[in-house]
Amino acid sequence: MARRLPRPHPFDVRIAVGGLLGGLLLWGVGLGMRPASEATVLVPGAWPLLLPLVVMSACELLRQSAPHIALPVATLALVADLFTQGSLATLLMFTDVMYAAVLYGTPAAARRIPWVTGMLTVVATVVPYALLRTSEALLIGVATGVVSFGPASTGLIVRNHREAAVSARLRAEQTALLAEMDRTQAVVAERARVARELHDMVANHLSAIAIHSSAALSLDNPQTSRDALAVIRENSVEGLSEMRRLIGILRDDSGDREPSAAPTLEGLDALVATARANGLDATLDAGYGEGLPAPVGMAAYRIVQESLTNALKHAGDGRVTVTLEQDSHSLRIAVTSPYGDRDGPRAPGSGAGLVGMRERAALLHGTFEAGPEDSENGKIWAVRASLPVAEGESE
Predict the structure, then answer these.
(1) How far apart are CA 63 and CA 51, in angstroms?
(2) Which pLDDT value is given to residue 224?
(3) pLDDT in tens, the chain (395 residues)
(4) Is 343 a member of any domain?
(5) At what angle do helices 88-104 and 107-132 cross, to 10 degrees?
(6) 227 in any annotated domain
(7) How far apart are CA 381 and CA 379, in angstroms?
(8) Are the C-beta atoms of 260 and 245 separated by less than 8 Å?
(9) What distance in Å separates the CA atoms of residue 360 and residue 386, rounded to the nearest whole number?
């Protein structure tokens, strides 16, 4: 089955019609490029130049859609036009076809055509001059260059400029896309950070409130209820203070209140004391030096805080131990508690605690693991994390 030619571009149709009408007008008034006596015509009269004119107009229809077909046919039409009086319209349309073949053709054709036409121009300049030995012979090379090499090189220049513009636009779009991806990732990371802070600050206090409120409601003992309400009040006040600190961090325009300092390892004693007040038999064995990086100290504090919260909700009866050890490379954290076998936690939870602790360790390129282990005192739940310490920032 024969392959159909592509549909001409509307602009090419206008060029072809304009060139054909212009050539017919020149033919109608009897204007040719050479006198009839100087033209070698196969058919007497001015009619023969119409055939190359019509063929060249048809080639203009394919200047964008099929330049690989248009240029060879246009070259044959130009050669045929040399044996007639010649039409200026045919010559001009050939230069446009040559230009379009480089501009719209394949990259290989765009490189090859200017090189071939340049060589033809050199040959058309050197050979006639060598044979005729007259300066007028150089005009043959000039005419060849104007008709072939000039349009081809112009098409190559325009093509290079277009490709450079397209490349610049693509780079700009890629830069904008990367910027949008960075912005989206920054927003997601900030939301995750806020979620971790909110969970770590509030979960501990609300878990204690839930457990002690349940005790106050279930036991008909005034003293027990009074002690539970005291713990509830203390955790409510501390939780409200933590919430205010977080709101102060999030509100950049709140100039009337400075947020309190972020928690550090210096607050571990108070944190463990609060855990004891909430009902945990918790002990602290902290061995770390001065000058820990602030992100490491805060991450360690939050990991211990969340581990104590989980122990409050899930651990069985027994001692909860918090151990911190530091060497020249890392700060190691271990929180162990009796493995609870109860049907459910003493306070509801979101299940995001372990995820948050793992994220905090990963952000500092540390390690984190949590799960049941066997020990001398039976089955325990152990949370272990190792946070790298930058060299020179610890003592």
Answers:
(1) 19
(2) 62
(3) 456 777 888 999 999 999 999 999 988 887 777 665 555 544 455 688 899 999 999 999 999 999 999 999 999 999 998 888 888 999 999 999 999 999 999 999 999 999 999 999 999 999 988 888 888 888 888 999 999 999 999 999 999 999 999 999 989 888 888 888 888 887 777 777 777 666 666 666 666 666 667 656 666 667 666 666 666 666 676 667 667 766 666 665 544 444 445 677 888 888 888 888 777 888 888 877 677 888 888 888 888 988 888 887 777 788 899 999 988 888 999 999 988 665 555 444 555 678 888 888 888 889 999 988 888 778 888 999 999 986 444 33
(4) yes
(5) 140
(6) no
(7) 7
(8) yes
(9) 11
Exposure string over 211-250, b if 16+ CB within 10 A, otherwise e? bbbebbeeeeeeeebeebeebbebbeebbeebeebeeeee
Domain boundary pick from 132, 147, 173:
173
Domain count, the chain: 2
Entry pTM: 0.54
d(CA 61, CA 55): 10
* Host H or E run for residue 23: helix 10-28
Range of the domain at 70: 10-173
CATH number of the structural domain spanning residue 367: 3.30.565.10
Q: Dig out the tokens for 60 from the structure.
A: 């203009």
Q: Write a three-state SS string for 333-377.
A: EEEEEECCCCCCCCCCCCCCHHHHHHHHHHHCCCEEEEEEEEECC
Assess whether 27 and 128 both reside in one domain: yes
Amino acid at the residue 105: G
**Residue 48 region by backbone torsions, left for phi larger than 0, else alpha for psi between -120 and 50, else beta:** alpha
- Could you tell me if residue 244 is inside a domain? no
Whether residue 158 is found in the same domain as residue 284: no
The tokens for 127 are 């050979």
Strand spans (E) along the chain: 281-287, 319-326, 330-338, 367-375, 378-388
Rounded distance between C-alpha atoms, residue 228 and residue 277, angstroms: 10
The amino acid occupying position 65 is: S
**Termini Cα distance of the chain:** 84
Q: Which among 195, 284, 176 has a CA at the least distance from the CA of 246?
A: 195
CA separation for the pair 332, 368 (Å, rounded): 10
